[in-house]
Amino acid sequence: MIQGSCHCGAVRFDYQRTAETAASCNCSICRRLGATWIYANADQITFHMAEGATHRYLRGEENIGFHSCTTCGCPTHWENMAEPETGPMAVNLNLCDPEEAAKVPVRRFDGADSWSFID
Ligand SMILES: [Zn+2]
């Protein structure tokens, strides 16, 4: 398990699996957010936060909701709007303890074009 927290602490999460790889994605939203994503299914991630602690941004097609803390602005996670309970989800590895995060290899994901890893 790896735990994460936004800067102000309003949003915390437990990522309940071993993160074997993380993705730095170059798509139009991820490159702007600057997040490093570790993936799981939604039921493998537990959030500790109050109602309304995050702001959700729906990108163009509205199938993925990108969340950031309403207080400190840190990008926290994204969710699949069609399957928010069990579908694919990712949390931002940059919010985790740096020593733990350093153990996870980061790969470059070409979400802008080929939809595959490019390293
Ligand atoms: Zn915060």
From TrEMBL:
Keyword list (alphabetical) reads: Metal-binding, Zinc
Question: Does this UniProt record's set of keywords contain Metal-binding?
Answer: yes
Please indicate which superkingdom the organism of origin belongs to: Bacteria
Q: GO molecular function: any one? A: metal ion binding
- Residue stretches making up the CENP-V/GFA domain: 2-116
One Pfam family, short name:
GFA
What is the residue range of the signal peptide feature? none
Q: Which family does it belong to?
A: Belongs to the Gfa family.
Name of protein: CENP-V/GFA domain-containing protein
